[in-house]
Design brief:
With about 400 residues, the chain is α/β, with parallel strands linked by helices. Helix content is about 45%, strand content about 20%. The structure holds NADP nicotinamide-adenine-dinucleotide phosphate and magnesium ion.
Length: about 400
């Protein structure tokens, strides 16, 4: 079989520990035998980030903006222990944070559904993708303990001094607490745009929810920005794509989601997204089966697995022991990126290959061949727990049969 040719390179961001080992296996066993893989390679492994003073992370984000599509391996976010372990010059920031700030993007997380790994919520038949607004609110708050009786006010003064606004927060009779939070029209607008664009590219309905009945100015601003953008820019595109935009109150959204079939995108404010994404990933079964894509309002895409570098497995691997590490989310990061590249460059064979590789991965698990994390929770009677490489080779066998 002739290898599939690519036009534009994918931006390849390599990473750390066990996921770095899987990364190479996936490329060697599942991709390069079939695709003349064209990538622009950036090594975001912690050692190389340290050597380049983290310049490589910024360079990789620049490349993502140049080419439009990137695929990223999980990376270590250093803490004090990592600074000692790798003898780092500095406690470098999270690469994901740096890339997200440069791309101004929103992260969408989607579970991968397979028969035999059943969601806790029985009516969920299709994935629910969650999008978390990653700026402001309680994550950038200012807070204070109020020591004794007194007045707390909210005061705004414009830079030129022409406008002042003042609101009484509370007249305290005794001690208490107070908090100030903010958000920006510009950030909410970027978030909304990423959500509408992603819904269109996936052809799935978009839900958004806030508490605008209680928060008549703050949350209402989110609702208004979404609605105005929908009305002026997306109404007709959504209609043409056969999808809908649905706004409701956050509590109503939660209640409806528990009774839904899934198959839509749920945009959440920062705190709701933080909490609800953990609920969804555990209810869908496993963090190892969750993919993640960063979508920028300018149309750049960066695909990755939602889990980390699986450090505990890596230490076993270093001791020469076999690990049974799940590569599914990392495989889907590659297929997501290859499919997007294929769509943008009009290479139908590449899109088809991405579909087939996903199909082969799911069929392999459904035939009973899986990694230990899934074997422990599956309802399939014939489950067999394979080591990391044997699982990837089993996918390759399935792929050979369906290509
Ligand atoms: P983790 O890598 O997600 O792993 C936590 C545990 O979850 C593992 O020990 C393993 O459980 C299970 N697990 C996760 N992914 C798995 C997979 N693919 N296959 C099988 N089991 C899997 O989280 P962590 O150990 O807390 O973090 C390790 C490093 O990852 C940290 O340095 C952190 O900074 C980084 N991290 C990076 C990203 C990213 O780049 N996007 C995200 C999160 C964390 P058992 O040990 O019980 O088998
Ligand atoms: Mg959380």
């Amino acid at each position: 079989m002739e290898k599939i040719q690519m036009k534009t390179p994918l931006v390849e961001m390599d990473g750390d520990e066990m996921t770095r080992i899987l990364w190479k296996m996936i490329k060697d066993d599942l991709l390069t035998p079939y695709i003349d893989l064209k990538t622009e390679y950036y090594d975001l492994g912690l050692k190389h980030r340290d050597e380049t003073n983290d310049q490589v992370t910024r360079d990789s984000a620049e490349a993502a903006m140049k080419y439009g599509v990137a695929v990223k391996c999980a990376t270590i976010t250093p803490n004090a222990a990592r600074v000692r372990e790798y003898n780092l010059k500095e406690m470098w920031k999270s690469p994901n944070g740096t890339i997200r700030a440069m791309l101004d993007g929103t992260v969408f997380r989607t579970p991968i559904l397979v028969k035999g790994i059943d969601p806790v919520v029985k009516c969920w038949k299709k994935p629910i993708t969650i999008a978390r607004h990653a700026y402001g609110d309680v994550y950038r708050n200012v807070e204070m303990r109020v020591p004794k009786a007194g007045k707390v006010e909210l005061v705004y003064t414009s830079d030129d001094g022409t406008i002042t606004k003042k609101e009484l927060v509370h007249q305290f009779d005794g001690p208490g607490v107070v908090q100030g939070t903010h958000n920006l029209d510009q950030s909410i607008t970027s978030f909304a745009k990423s959500c509408f664009e992603f819904a269109l590219s996936r052809k799935e309905d978009l839900w958004f929810a806030t508490k605008d009945t209680i928060s008549k100015t703050y949350d209402h601003r989110f609702k208004d920005i979404f609605q105005e953008m929908y009305d002026t820019q997306y109404k007709y595109k959504f209609k043409a794509a056969g999808i809908t935009y649905f706004y409701t109150l956050i509590d109503d959204a939660v209640a409806r989601i528990m009774k839904s079939e899934g198959g839509f995108i749920w945009a959440c404010k920062n705190y709701d997204g933080d909490v609800m994404s953990d609920m969804l990933s555990s209810a869908f079964g496993s963090l190892a089966m969750m993919t993640s894509v960063l979508v920028s309002p300018h149309g750049y895409y960066e695909y990755e697995a939602a889990h980390g570098t699986v450090q505990r497995h890596y230490y076993k691997y270093l001791k020469g022991e076999k690990t049974s590490t799940n590569s599914v989310a990392t495989i889907f990061a590659w297929t997501g990126a290859l499919r997007k590249r294929g769509e943008l460059d009009a290479i139908p064979e590449l899109v088809r290959f991405a579909d087939k590789l996903e199909e082969a991965t799911i069929a392999t698990i459904e035939s009973g061949k899986m990694t230990g994390d899934l074997a422990r929770i599956t309802s399939l009677p014939n489950a067999e727990s394979l080591d990391s490489e044997a699982f990837i080779l089993a996918i390759r066998d399935t792929l050979e049969k369906i290509l």
